[in-house]
Amino acid sequence: MDKFTTLTGVAAPLPIINIDTDMIIPKQYLKTIKRTGLGTALFSEMRYNDDGSENADFVLNKPAYRQAKIIVAGDNFGCGSSREHAPWALLDFGVRCVISTSFADIFYNNCFKNGILPLVVTPEQLAMLLDDAERGSNATITVDLEAQTIKGPDGGELHFDIDPSRKQTLLEGLDDIAGTLKSDPTISGFEAKMSESRPWL
Q: What is the SS3 assignment for 142?
């Protein structure tokens, strides 16, 4: 998993509440178990018209936001079914950070497992960030995970809170397996002691 330290990129405004995982990646794309190739299907029901052409009004189809790395979204992002394809699609599109006032628990956890930083901010902070994101190609935001800050295009800075263990996981680029392997010496030592003291197990 790629490390997440500092991310600077265009932020796309998506001020819609209750964006569920079916909106993020519709069910017809769930047949694959590959983590790549889903970026083109991200928000497909909003991005494309019935004939397959692009919906010019959707934010990610606008020239300024086609390379967006950050999404600033409404409350309760990622609700609905527990499909890991949702963070896969975001990551494959190029999104490494989603900012909202709240996230559904399963989606929130899946983000950390896939190298995406889901940031929870206050409604007042979200309003400021949405205002920044509305600036199009000038909507460049810097997220510094180490310092736990978000810096806007005018230099304004916000602080965010994050669980220390989740923060370290992203800084080191550790998925669940890699995180467990970090403790391999301790685990192996415990197993060796158990084998000696309880050989019948």
A: strand
- Check the CA dihedral 48-52-54-57 and report its sign: negative
Closest by Cα among 184, 185, 166, 164 to 175:
166
To the nearest 10 degrees (0 to 180), the angle between helices 85-93 and 105-113 is 50
User: What are the extents of the domains in the chain?
Assistant: 6-173
Distance CA(4)–CA(102), nearest Å, equals 21
Query: What pTM was estimated for this model as a whole?
Result: 0.86
Q: Which CATH architecture has domain 6-173?
A: Alpha-Beta Barrel (3.20)
**Given the structure tokens 């900012």, which residue do they identify?**
99
Give bridge partners of residue 8 from the DSSP assignment.
142
Give the span between the Cα atoms of 74 and 99, in whole angstroms: 8
Note the pLDDT tens digit of each residue in 53-74: 999 999 999 999 999 999 999 9
User: Alpha carbon 153 to chain centroid distance?
Assistant: 21
